[in-house]
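Box S1 | Example of a co-folding query
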Amino acid sequence: MAHTHLAACHCGNLSARYDCTAAPAVMTLRACGCTFCRKHNARTTSDPEGRAEIVVRDPAALTRYRFGQRTADFLVCGNCGVYLGALFTDKDGAAYTTLNANAFANVQALPDAAESVHYDKESPGEKNARRRARWTPANLRIAGAD
Ligand SMILES: [Zn+2]
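Box S1 (continued) | Returned holo structure for zinc ion
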């Protein structure tokens, strides 16, 4: 994989290593129109050819926020409040993520512009199909638990 990015919340309880194909300057960022993403001003990115590992130090300080159709966990640090990304776990246990690029260590190297996207008319099945096709294959592990 050509490019590795490190992401973390403000206090470091949540972090991620993201390997993707696009160079930072041409990374595609999305500004989802849902009210959760707008309130965080999130800019998210994913790569179905990539790979992400999300690491949680203290699982007691991980909020898995769910809303709307409740089909994905929005990972928010319960300590510092940063939104790291969303995690969708499929019926077969495979997990996919879209990460909040604002939490990347190299955010300055990323494009400023984010494409506006709106998913509010999707059914739960359509949402899950989109996540399987476009989000990054991922796993979440608790630090020190393995
Ligand atoms: Zn934090």
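Residues 9-11, 13-14, 77, 79-80, 82 surround zinc ion (CB under 6 Å). The CA atoms of residues 18 and 129 lie 22 Å apart.
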